[in-house]
Design a protein that fits this description.
about 375 residues; single chain; mainly alpha; 2 domains
Length: about 375
């Protein structure tokens, strides 16, 4: 009976594990795209290249998808159509570039361009993550220490202070109240945190919620400026990639609007696409958009007039990426002393609140 129950539990766990398939990371997709571009450039047929890559992959979600795609390619389905069946894995930019490559005969070039995009995106995310690691660690440690003091250490002093026959100092009364609330109503705090997370998640998934949140983010002091620079970098680099791959401007704007990652800028880009559709060039379409600085508009105009939009947008992306890194470093430099001061103030308040009644008790004993 026990063995049968154990086997049933193991089978259920195995079934649950099989249902969980992790998402494809930018790094995995970047490696796959670069390898496929290299093999295509060497003259390896698409199905053979896909089969070789699939055979060398470790078990992952991407390998499962590639296995399905290579079978469809063998049956004659275009590569771009196969990718379009998995929009949660392959972004619209990748599908659009590959479709253009299939039509123009520049499959290797467009695939290589998108590999450049993915490698840039991976490096971009890595820089942001690296800059924010130290402040986040400090925040976590500070909050953890304060919670530990309030929950594990202070209850002992609360019991001791409650036996005093004299009035306690105000800091001690406040600290005892906070400690009692944490120990007695921790479930309320946990429930509120969970409720806020659920409400925020649901609201952020709505069209209005995304627009409100993305707008608010852009107006946070310093952080909002860094986010603007990051979005300008992503827009410029994506447009450079597509311009160099021969993607029509209207299609390029449509794809960029879908993949830019900010509802406000996406709305502006889609409006610009409508202007381009009516006959305007890109610089004219973006001239009235408040998000884009005049310097960027002028650079785009120069690129259109000289026929070097790819090079111009690549330089714009490089410039704003450096600006974003500089602002982010400033944010990190400013956050470090602020967080240290906040942690010192919190710990100092706890020390004062604990020592005041002890000093008062020692004076009474004397």
């Amino acid at each position: 009976m026990a063995d049968g129950a154990l086997e049933t539990i193991k089978a259920a766990v195995k079934r649950l594990n099989s249902l969980y398939v992790p998402k494809v990371s930018v790094r995995d997709l970047s490696a796959f795209t670069r390898q496929l571009a290299t093999m295509s450039g060497a003259g390896v047929p698409l199905y053979q290249a896909m089969n070789t890559l699939w055979d060398s992959m470790e078990e992952s979600r991407l390998k499962v998808i590639i296995g399905k795609i290579k079978d469809k390619i063998k049956g004659g389905t275009p590569f771009s159509e196969c990718l379009a069946e998995y929009p949660e894995t392959f972004p619209p930019l990748m599908i659009g570039l590959i479709k253009v490559g299939e039509v123009t005969g520049l499959f290797e070039k467009t695939l290589g361009k998108y590999a450049d995009q993915l490698e840039w995106e991976e490096d971009f995310q890595s820089k942001i993550s690296t800059m924010m690691i130290y402040p986040l660690i400090m925040l976590f440690v500070g909050v953890s220490v304060l919670v530990f003091i309030l929950v594990a250490i202070l209850p002992t002093f609360v019991n001791l202070f409650s036996e005093f026959k004299q009035a306690l100092p105000l800091p001690t009364v406040i600290l005892m109240g906070i400690s009692s609330f944490f120990t007695g109503y921790w479930w309320v705090i946990l429930a509120v945190i969970i409720a806020v997370i659920i409400m925020y998640t649901r609201y952020s998934r709505t069209e209005k919620g995304r627009e409100v949140i993305d707008t608010a983010v852009l107006y946070i002091p310093l952080f909002g400026m860094a986010m603007r620079k990051a979005l300008l970098t992503r827009f410029s680099f994506s447009l450079s990639i597509m311009a160099g791959s021969g993607v029509p401007m209207l299609q390029a704007l449509s794809i960029t609007g879908e993949t830019i990652g900010n509802a406000v800028l996406s709305k502006y880009i889609k409006a610009a696409a409508k202007s381009v559709e009516r006959g305007s060039n890109l610089s004219q379409a973006l001239k009235d958009v408040p998000f884009f600085p005049k310097s960027v508009i002028q650079m785009i105009q120069v690129g259109e007039e000289t026929g070097k939009l790819e090079d111009v947008m690549s330089r714009v992306a490089a410039y704003h990426e450096k600006e974003m890194e500089l602002i982010t470093r400033r944010i990190v430099i400013m956050l470090e002393p602020i967080m240290i001061l906040v942690m010192a103030a919190g710990v100092g308040f706890v020390v004062i609140a604990v020592l005041l009644p002890i000093l008062g008790l020692s004076s009474i004993v004397k």
